[in-house]
């Protein structure tokens, strides 16, 4: 396991143990709904299903198809806010 992987695991563990991960997920959900991301993704899913036909699309196919667009559509402001909150949390709880 690389040093980076160990660091990510440690950060993730700390976020989870202190309940911050769940708070960040709730914040992300709210922000994505607020900016219309959720509606955009719902519409994109409907497009993909319409193009391929309901009988020919699995959940896995849908995930592979929509994930890149979903990531690209997350506003920079939302990414920056989450990163800021994670950094602030880590600074406050540094050991």
Automatic annotation (TrEMBL):
GO function terms (MF aspect): transcription coactivator activity
Protein name per its UniProtKB record: Transcription and mRNA export factor ENY2
Protein family: Belongs to the ENY2 family.
Subcellular location: Nucleus, Nucleoplasm
HAMAP family associated with the record: ENY2_Sus1 (MF_03046)
Name of one Pfam family that matches: EnY2
Keyword Repressor attached: no
Quaternary data: Component of the nuclear pore complex (NPC)-associated TREX-2 complex (transcription and export complex 2). Component of the SAGA transcription coactivator-HAT complex. Within the SAGA complex, participates in a subcomplex of SAGA called the DUB module (deubiquitination module). Component of the nuclear pore complex (NPC)-associated TREX-2 complex (transcription and export complex 2). Component of the SAGA transcription coactivator-HAT complex. Within the SAGA complex, participates to a subcomplex of SAGA called the DUB module (deubiquitination module).
Keywords for the protein's UniProt record, in alphabetical order: Activator, Chromatin regulator, mRNA transport, Nucleus, Protein transport, Transcription, Transcription regulation, Translocation, Transport
Keyword Nucleus: yes
UniProt-listed GO biological process terms: chromatin organization; mRNA export from nucleus; protein transport; transcription elongation by RNA polymerase II
GO cellular component terms attached to this protein's record: DUBm complex; nuclear pore; nucleoplasm; SAGA complex; transcription export complex 2
Summary of the function given for this chain in its UniProt record: Involved in mRNA export coupled transcription activation by association with both the TREX-2 and the SAGA complexes. The transcription regulatory histone acetylation (HAT) complex SAGA is a multiprotein complex that activates transcription by remodeling chromatin and mediating histone acetylation and deubiquitination. Within the SAGA complex, participates to a subcomplex that specifically deubiquitinates histones. The SAGA complex is recruited to specific gene promoters by activators, where it is required for transcription.
Predominant location: nucleus
């Amino acid at each position: 396991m690389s040093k980076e992987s160990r660091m990510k695991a440690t950060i993730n563990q700390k976020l989870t143990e202190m309940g911050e991960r769940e708070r960040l997920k709730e914040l992300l959900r709210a922000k994505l709904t607020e900016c219309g991301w959720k509606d955009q993704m719902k519409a994109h899913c409907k497009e993909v299903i319409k193009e391929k036909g309901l009988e020919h699309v699995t959940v896995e196919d849908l995930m592979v198809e929509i994930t890149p667009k979903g990531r690209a559509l997350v506003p920079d402001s939302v990414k920056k806010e989450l990163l800021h909150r994670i950094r602030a949390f880590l600074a406050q709880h540094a050991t």
